[in-house]
Each structure stands twice: as C-alpha cells, then as structure tokens.
Amino acid sequence: MLIRWANLIVGGFHLVTVLFAILLPFVCAALIPLLYRRLRRMAHLGWFVLSVPIILFILLARYIPQIAEGKTFIDTYEWIPSFNINFTTYLDGLSIIFGLLITGVGSLVILYSIFYLSTKESLHHFYCYLLLFMGAMLGVVFSDNLMVLYTFWELTSVSSFLLIAFWHHRKASRAGARKAMTITVFGGLSMLAGFLMLYVASGTFSIRDIVSNVEMIREHTLFVPALLLILVGAFTKSAQFPFHIWLPDAMEAPTPVSAYLHSATMVKAGIYIVARFSPVFGGEPVWFWLVSGIGLVTLFWGSFNAVRQTDLKALLAFSTVSQLGLIMSLFGLGSVGHYFGYAESSIIYTQASFAALFHLINHSTFKGALFMMVGIVDHEVGTRDIRRLGGLMALMPVTFTIAVIGGFSMAGLPPFNGFLSKEMFFAAVLAIREVEVFSIDTWGILFPVVAWVASIFTFVYSMILIGHTFFGKLQPYKLDKKPHEAPIGMLISPIVLCLLVVTIFFFPNVLGHYILQPAMASIYPTFPTVSELTPHISAWHGVNTELLMTLGVIIIGFVLFKTLKSWKPLYRVFSQNFTFNSYYNHLINFSEKGSMKLTNRYMSGNLTHYFVYIYVFFVALIAGYFIWSDAMVFEFAKDSPVESYELVLVFVMMFAAIWMVFAKGRITAMLLNGVLGYSIAFFFVIFRAPDLALTQLVVESVTTALFLLCFKYLPDLLPENSRMRVKWANAIIAIFAGATVTLVGLAVVHYDRFETVALYFNDAYDLAGGSNIVNTILGDFRAFDTMLEVVVLLIAGLGVYTLTKLKPRKEEADHEN
C-alpha cells in the first residue's frame, strides 16, 4: 500500500517531486501539534511519522536510473524575483546521495525511536522537531539559490538545537544545545557573508551559474575572502578543528538524534558545501591547504581524543569528528584535479573525491549502527560508562554482532565497507606526494604519516568500543539494570545498516556506478568523460603500500590496545585548563560578565538617562557623518520663499514647545502639545496635502481627548529638583538634537552625493498602480508595514493559543508524569 501511494504521488507530481520532498516534512510537522492527541489513541505517533521519510526515499530512489545516465532535474519557483532570489530546486548526482541518506537513515532512526523512546516522553515535540530538521536538510542539499540554501542552513541549526535540548530538564542538554547553536550559527553568518561576496563577484545567486562562470569569478578581488568565509561555515557545521568542541556536548541528545544528526545528516552538511563548491574553489592553493590540512588535523585530533573517553557516546562523538576530518581531507586532496583539469595523468587525484563520497556513505552506515548499538546498551543496561561495562557478549549476542560489524568497519577491516574506503584513503594520501604544485613536495610527506597514525588510534578506539563493552568480566553490581537483549523492534534498524555494511563490501561497484559516478560528474562538471573518474572498486589489489599500511595499523593498534592501561595515563599530561572547551567556556563567561556590567551601567532605571543616550548617539552619528562628508551644504537661493503666515505658525509652535517644558500641570502640557499637533495640520493644508491634514486632525483630536480624560484623575506634576549642571547639560543636548534635525533637513534638499530616491517613484503608476506618488508610498510601504505588524500579532496569537488550548489535559498530564 505504501509503495502504491508513493507511485501515485510520483505520477501526479513528477515535475514538483523535489519541492514536494522539501515541503512534506514541514507540512507534517505543522500538523503534528494539531493531531497528536487523536493519533496517540490509535497507535504510537512514530508509526505515522515513519511514512514521511519512507515515501520520500521511494520518490528519490525512482530517479537513480535517470541520474546515473547523467540527467539533472531543475525546477524554479518565483519567490523574490526583484532581488534574483527564486526557489530553484536542483537534483543531480551529488544532491541525490545526501537526499537518500537523509530520508533512508531518517526512516531507520524513526523506526528505532518508536521502540527507544517511552510513550511518557513528549513525542509530539520530538517528531515535530525531527521533521523540521529533515525538511531543512533536504532544503540545503536541493537548493540551487544561495539565499534559499542559507535559509535552510540556519533552520537546521535551530531544529538541531531543539532536538539536542529535547531533555530540557537536564542542564547538560541545554548547555550542549546552546554551544552547538552558537558555533554553527556563527559559522552560518560567516557563510552568508561569503555567499554575498560570490554574488557581488558573479552577479547571480545560482550555484549552477556561478560554476559555469568560474573563470571570471576567480579574477575578482573577493574570490579568496568568499572562499575563507564559506569554509568557516562548512567547518563549523561539520565539526572540524577547532570548531569540533560542540559535537561531544551534543551527545546529551537522545540516541536517535545522535544517530541521525551526528552520523548521517547535520554534520554532513558542511561536507556537502565543500563538495558542491569544489568546482568553484578547487584548484586554489588556499582551498587545497585549508580543506586537506584542517581535515587531517581533525582526523588525528578526533581519533587521539576518542581513546581517552570513558563514555560510549563521547567515544563515538570524537570518532565522528575524526571520520569527518577524513572525508574533508579527501575532498581537499581531490581538489588538485581541478588545477590540472581533465587529463589522463590527473585521474589519480580525482579518485580522492571518489573515496570521499564512498566513505561518506560507508560512515553513515556503520556509525548509525554503532550509535544505535550504544543506545541499546544504555537502554537495556542503564549506563554508557565503559568502566562499568564488560561481559555483555553472551547476554546481548545480537547487539554484540552489530558492534563487531560496525566497529570493524570503522577500524577499516575486511570484509566490511570501511575497509574499501580506508584503502582508497591511503592510496590518495600516498599519491598526493607526487604532486609538484602548492609546495606539496615539502609538506606532502606529512599526509600519509598523519593518516597512518590517526588510523592506528582509530583501530584502538574501535577495539575499546567492542572489547570493553562485550568482553571481559560482567560487573552486575555496577549496572543500573539487569542486562538482557533488546526487543526485536529496536534491533531492526541497526541490523539493516549492518547488512548494508557487508553488502557494500561485496557489491561496491553497483554503488559506484549508480550513485558515486553521477556525483563525480557534479564535482568535476568540466571533465568530459565521467566514467574514467569512477575507479573499479576491489578488495584486493595485491601486496602494495596501502595493504602494508593497513597491516601496520592492525599490528601496532592491537599492541596499543592490549597495553592501554600502561600508556593511557599519558593523557593526564594534557591539562584540561588548556583545551578548546575551556577557552570556549572562559570566552562565554567573560562575555556574560562583561555584558552584565555594561548593562548595569546604562540600565539605571532613569528615563532621562535613556533619552540622553539616544540623543547623544543620534547627534554624534548623524551630525558627525554630515560634517565628515562635507554634506552640510545650504543654498537658500534655490528654496521657495517663506510667507509671513508660515513664520507665524513657526513662532506659535516654538512658543507652545517652550511653554510646555515649563508647564506645571499635565492638562496645560497636553493642551500645548495639541497646539503643536494642530499647527502641523495647518502646515499640511498649506503644502496641499489635505489627506495628511485630515489624518493629523483626527488623530490629534482623539489623542488629546483621551489624554485629557486620563490626566484628570492623575495628581499634579511634581517639580524637578535636578542640579543646575544637569539642567544645562540636558538643555545643550536638546539644542544640539534639534539643530541636527533642522540642519540635516535643510542639507538634504541640496544633497547630491547619491541619486535622488524620487526618481524611483517617477513611474509610480506602473510600479504600484497609483497616479499620486504620496498615496502610492503610503499604500505600498505603510500597508506592507501593517502587514508585518499583523504577522507579529498572528505569531503572538498562535503562541497564546498553543499555551492555552494545546496544553495537556489533567489526565494526560498525570499519565506523562
């Protein structure tokens, strides 16, 4: 039935499938708060949510044969065409890999969560956040417009914040969510600046158009700054050194969140950006050294720190950091192929990108299975502390099998898919030594050395994960629960992932032809023959250097694992006071204390002080700019003559304003304020703006009557006892503020440094359908402002409705508690 439903949808929405894939999770997320009470009475809410990623996975899978033939699918929907911002979806070989991972792993994660999360949890919140994140990730990988991509990019940060902080009653969960959002949003803003620079350099927001005009863009002065800023965004999202510190703290999220966000989706968003922009920045020395260098440092630092962890999820967190660094470094090495262009001799360098794509998929399979395995151990045993675990192999044989398959694949051992991509990784770092550009001949030897040392630590922490959890002596007195095998429902998802781990090892070229080859065409769009970029994947290449490196990893890694107790105390040499985490915490504490001190200095509770701050800043900024730019130019000869009745009105307004300051009663002050308002209305009449005059008269009459009615019941004004120095200071500030407004108003008439805005409204009838420019401005801009105000009120109203109408009923609250 599910497949028939998917086929029906594809048949009816063939042209909008990608848009449908992006919007469906958002629509379902919006419906969950409204329907969850009815759905929960019928079955677990997760069963209904599960249908969303399954349908989307089937929809995308139908495109695999066509994508493998080299086809791409592009659809554009107008959004803000006046600013060249349109909702353009782009489905090609690269985006479909990520789309299949997002929906495929998402399906398994939701199935796993059905059995992992208790019905006492706030499931409607969890699945709503999860669908929001799924839709945002699909929007990132399918968007061709930079601004649309950035919008979804930041939405992934917001939704991941909600997922990490799902158990918001825990302080660690809230802290981890804040750290993740702070770092990734900072990177997102940096990436936005890079996108805007690319727009200035290329004149378009379309990634496809930027790639097609890359030769022109490379000559622009903003090319390298854009490169650096975009990389900051990619590095923060993909937890690259030194921005990796948010990922271990994010492990406070429920295990399904970790399995989804931190192995297959969110952390891969930065990888996607690097792969997507490789045709633009690839071949640049800065891009090569940053992507490959930071990737290798991240690979080593993550694997080195994973060994010291005592919590299973923390170990997997640092292993994820390490594996992300491996993938990132491979894309950096593969960027050399863009420097040489298409040539038979450069194919060896492009295979690094192929290995990156291959390991991207492999990592999602074995790391997703390992996260679910750790969740099972925690769920059934009650702890993730390695020091309390051991001897679980006989009691949890299926979970042990999952750990062995996932762990050995992560360590790069056969017959698992991680072995194939790890061998290709070794081949890439060995081949890069032969490149005679970018000064690689001096530093190139470090690539295979760092890769090999990091792989040894990878082997060690993989053995720790398996050996310290399932081998050794059982310690039941240290466990919170009596250990037993998980229910079959919780085992299905990791078993499926383990089957993929083994299947890919034996049939890797099916994946290479239908999935990886089209993605290579996206990364190297100028290469005419894509088939040559896709090597034949084989587990055996004879006795070569890569195989010897693998044997060295196994032998040395096994020795280090067996002697772990003797050398692990060396980690104590690295003080916790000099870590990036401590620096981050010191920075946050310093910022909070500094902002508190600054706020306490100016938030005195005195309204007069606040006006002083506002007016001083206003005078300094506005008057300072006009004086600095020599804009204070006055040519009164060109002005219209001032009539005597206009002078009378001016003096009346001045008299009323000055008298109002010295008025001793509220009613007197209010009447004088009314004189000011009515005088302005007379000016509108004089300047032939009857509609404005009528509006001013009505508003002034109503407000004067209301104020008089209210002030009748208030006590008289008390005289101010301010010191004379304060009064003089306030008077000087008031005079300067008034003089600034007056002088700026006079100077603007003769300001010619910019084109007058009046030219924009010369064609008011065609632009807005109004022949009166004043009415057009009011109708367009004031109406737009009112619309935004209504939207704000609508959002506030929805919030109030949610808090009141959707709160749990008494019996439901008792059930959840």
From TrEMBL:
Q: What InterPro entries has UniProt attached to this entry? A: CPA3_Na-H_Antiporter_A, MrpA/MnhA1/PhaAB, MrpA_C/MbhD, MrpA_C/MbhE, ND/Mrp_TM, Proton_antipo_N
Task: Return any one Pfam family short name.
Answer: MbhE
What GO molecular function terms would the record report? antiporter activity
For this protein, the parts annotated as crossing the membrane are 12-36, 45-64, 93-114, 126-142, 148-168, 180-202, 222-247, 259-275, 287-307, 314-334, 354-377, 389-411, 445-467, 488-507, 547-564, 610-628, 644-662, 669-687, 693-714, 726-751, 786-804
GO CC list: plasma membrane
Q: What are the NADH:quinone oxidoreductase/Mrp antiporter transmembrane domain coordinates in residue numbering?
A: 143-435
Share an example GO biological-process annotation for this protein.
proton transmembrane transport
Residues annotated as domain NADH-Ubiquinone oxidoreductase (complex I) chain 5 N-terminal: 80-127
Ranges for domain MrpA C-terminal/MbhD come to 652-715
Residues in domain MrpA C-terminal/MbhE? 730-811
Subcellular location per UniProt equals: Cell membrane; Membrane
Task: Please provide the record's keywords in A-Z order.
Answer: Antiport, Cell membrane, Hydrogen ion transport, Ion transport, Membrane, Sodium, Sodium transport, Transmembrane, Transmembrane helix, Transport
Q: Which domain of life is it from?
A: Bacteria
Q: Which membrane topology term applies here?
A: Multi-pass membrane protein
Q: Which family does it belong to?
A: Belongs to the CPA3 antiporters (TC 2.A.63) subunit A family.
User: NCBIfam families of this UniProt entry?
Assistant: 2a6301s01, PRK12645.1
* The name this protein goes by in its record: Na+/H+ antiporter subunit A
Organism this protein belongs to: Lysinibacillus mangiferihumi
